[in-house]
Amino acid sequence: MSALSPFAGLVYESRDDDLVRFLNNPIDDSLSNTVRSIFDSLDDHREDVRNALGEADDDTLLVFARRRLVSARHTSSTRAINDALDAYALLARESDVPWESWFKATLFVGRQLGLDLKLLHDRFTEGASARSAQRASVAFDAMTRIEELSQCHVIEVSTTYGVGLVETTVVRDQSGQSWGGITGSPVSLGQYQVGYAPSTNLAQFAVKIADALDASQRVRCSSIRQDQLIATMFDLVTSGSYVDSLGCLSFFADALESGPHFAVTVAEVASEDYDEVYYDADDLALELAEAADSIEEQSALSAGPCVVVLSALPDFSDDASPEPVDLSDFLDIVRRASTPTL
């Protein structure tokens, strides 16, 4: 019989991984004590625990580490930074550690809080596997070249929940093109970090929509993530292309009982000049919303330069209805919450 997980009973819900609508959870304190106890134990015991961790345990450690980083931003807690790094050190597989994003972001915030990176490096090396310790050295060395959090592929947002963090999307070796707004003006792609520079508080807009949908008690919304506007949502260009935006966020809404599951995409578009014609951002957003709303199993609206698209997710259950999914009721909820904070 396998040994009982040291994290038995310490289970996060999917909502706990939302680093934008961040809420305190007492599980964090329990895990903090457990992780520190394991990390500070004898080498043999720590290694035995590491090798016995299952996939669910690894997921718990990763969520915990990200949450501790947000906690550190909220409370200026150096203990939270150490907790996050200890959690990464306990992972058995070096490939599971998000070295280029959350790990470096943790070092960045730790440095901001006055922690000595050399001491953090020494502690991590002491408790991590040999492969992770070797890879960590690269990340620690890279910190001399990192001056902004965005260089860690993580950005800060500010909402009624306080400071939040979002991992930015990095597109690698992607062929094809992105297309600007409703005009279809091409934007070249390559290996790049998807931008996020909205002029509105897009994160707060997404929060208002997610909170309103949750309050309906008909769906439960997942964590808010960065995304891209897929052109096929607007029947614009070929599959795989994207509509240019100043920022794009998305989340899922899962039915609590019977009802549709759908994705919510929130984006801000920019004004454009194309063929010597000026296209206002508000007008572009309206045209995009009308195009998306005309597509079956989608509902959409615009609010100033922002567009919101609800897209039904496939239902493969045995009792799935053959009729198209109608999301208009949910769009009404969105409409009542659709004044973005400028």
Description:
With 342 residues, this protein is α+β, with helices and mostly antiparallel strands. It folds into 2 domains: 14-152; 173-336, no CATH class. It is 39% helix and 20% strand. The chain has 10 helices and 16 strands. The chain has helices spanning 26-39, 43-52, 55-75, 78-90, 99-112, 117-127, 130-142, 202-215, 281-293, 328-336; strands at residues 154-159, 162-167, 170-171, 177-180, 185-188, 192-193, 219-221, 225-226, 229-230, 242-244, 247-255, 262-268, 272-274, 277-279, 298-303, 306-312. The strands form 5 sheets. Strands 7, 8, 11, 12, 15 and 16 form a 6-stranded antiparallel β-sheet that branches. It has a 4-stranded mixed β-sheet with strand order 5-4-10-9, with no helix packed on it. A two-stranded antiparallel sheet has the order 1-2. Strand 13 and strand 14 form a beta hairpin. The protein starts with 25 loop residues before the first helix and ends in a 6-residue tail after the last helix.
